[in-house]
Amino acid sequence: MSDFKLSTELPSWKKLQSIFESIDQFNVLEEFTKDPQRFEKYSKTFKNFDDSEILFDFSKNLINDEIKQSLLSLAKEANIEKLRDEMFNGDKINSTEGRAVYHVALRNRSMKPMLVDGKDTAKEVDDVLQHMKEFSNQVRSGEWKGYTGEKITDVVNIGIGGSDLGPVMVTEALKKYSQPGLNVHFVSNIDGTHLAEILKDLNVESTLFLIASKTFTTAETITNANSAKDWFLTKASEKDIAKHFAALSTNAEEVSKFGIDTKNMFGFENWVGGRYSVWSAIGLSVAIYIGFENFENFLKGAEAVDKHFTETKLEDNIPVLGGLLSVWYNNFYKAQTHLVAPFDQYLHRFPAYLQQLSMESNGKSVSRANVFTNYETGTILFGEPATNAQHSFFQLVHQGTKLIPADFILAAQSHNPIANNLHQKMLASNFFAQSEALMVGKNEDKVKSEGATGGLVPHKVFSGNRPTTSILAQKITPATLGALIAYYEHVTFVEGAVWNINSFDQWGVELGKVLAKVIGKELDDKSSVETHDPSTNGLINQFKKWSL
Ligand code: F6P
Question: Which keywords, in A-to-Z order, does the entry hold (predicted)?
């Protein structure tokens, strides 16, 4: 239980509020004039285990030393170090579910003791990884054969939420590391179109299904898995299932009920939250696609961030700074959203992945002391890869009425330096230009000096002073990607800790699931329903007329 009920009670919260009220003319560009060392002071370089680096430039944010110090005091008063240490000690900080939050133990490649309930997890985690290594090597080498002796050419991961978004995002991001002739596909939506469109090009004899579900009870996944099994059994027989279906789950009982041999089950424990599970057996499609060695480097990249997060003092702690900035904008500037725009096509699913991480974790309105918060919590995260995003919604980011703090991500080295690296230079120039434009803006005098007159002038003005964090990596490798994800996990942790909410449950997804079950039964016949509110009744009855 936390030592305070609501974050607004903390002295530094009140101090930040009064600072905010006194600085409405705060101009970040002027801060650079006042302090020529600002870039050096407010940017931090993370060194990964393989010596590659990622530069986090926080200097274009709307902060000065006083704000930074007050945010750091807020972090101290909110006991984020204590909560962090509890997480890394395997304590049951997910209080509403009585569980430890121990995804960090999944990337413990240094194999140090990491205990839950007095039991070391290092060996158990490593055993699953060794099983994943063996299996992924067999599939990749062609040693693992289908029921007719064909090697596997297509792996279909069936899962949803954390059992889908991580593997989808990571396999897309690391496509360059994949092996020709071995494809991965992802089915998540209960919309039959998703499964049908993927299966239509596949061959039963060379397809391997990975049924990914922590609980193995999620309606969408089990229905998709059953339909995939039906498709498989149109050609093969029950005894062949063992060669074509594996389960990634915590629930051995449901796995065997489904008909999958538990020898083909890759397990993990309930201390792994769904949205934190890409590091677990849920990452098997990733290991098969990019090879186990790369998968292990992905884990090690995250482990290196864990080390930084636990060992670096707060003022230099990169995820701490990222999380505190988010609090500053969300609670004092009242920003409603946070934009993440990767300048990287391979990272095109990264914002979607972060949406679950951030919004399922911190979309809460009750504090860890069981009272409703009187302040804003989780921000609305959105994003698309740039430069595409520039040609769609960036208009609003530059000139709209809302403050949209943004993270821009770029890797200096492209995996595809085509046209003599011309594309990469253009991509990079946009990465630099966007954060510059958002901060510097364009004032009326400049607009007029460029020839605009009369009513057109205000339309061409850019207010500037819009905050961005630039994240510049050397290259998107498995290690870099692991580090980036872990960075955002810990940013999410810091936000939740300051807001004093439980970032690790997700009760808000339950009600819709329960109602859908009830309505599902009502869709079995044509009789009209009257048991809901008038709008829902009206919609269901119209659906029945048109569909049944
Ligand atoms: O409904 C939300 C959720 O529970 C997510 O938290 C989770 O990632 C997803 O569903 C899938 O759950 P499972 O892996 O148990 O199928």
Answer: Isomerase
In sign, the C-alpha dihedral spanning 496, 497, 501, 505 is positive
Q: Mind listing the pLDDT tens digit for each residue in 312-345?
A: 999 999 999 999 999 999 999 999 999 999 999 9
pLDDT class for 197, splitting at 50, 70, 90?
very high
End-to-end Cα, the chain, rounded Å:
52
What SS3 state is found at 457?
helix
Q: Is 221 in the pocket of ligand 1 (CB under 6 A)?
A: yes
Of 214, 353, 354, 505, best ligand 1 pocket probe by most atoms within 8 Å of the beta carbon? 214
Spacing, Cα 188 to ligand 1 middle (Å)? 11
Substitution candidate for ligand 1 out of 279, 361, 506 with most atoms within 8 A of CB: 506
Give distance in angstroms: CA of 275 to centre of ligand 1. 8
Hey, how many other C-beta atoms are within 10 angstroms of the C-beta on 511? 9
Residue 398 bears catalytic tag: no
The reply to whether 214 belongs to the active site is no
pLDDT in tens, 205-259: 999 999 999 999 999 999 999 999 999 999 999 999 999 999 999 999 999 999 9
C-alpha to C-alpha distance for 167 and 157, rounded to whole angstroms: 8
Burial 91-117 (b: 16+ CB within 10 A, else e): bbbbeebebbbbbbbbbbbeeeebebe
User: How many angstroms does the Cα of residue 161 sit away from the middle of ligand 1?
Assistant: 5
Q: Which of 425, 475, 513, 517 is catalytic?
A: 513
Residue 20 CA: distances (Å) to CA of 17, 77, 226, 497, 499: 5, 19, 55, 21, 18
Q: Is 391 a catalytic residue?
A: yes
- What count of residues does the chain have? 548
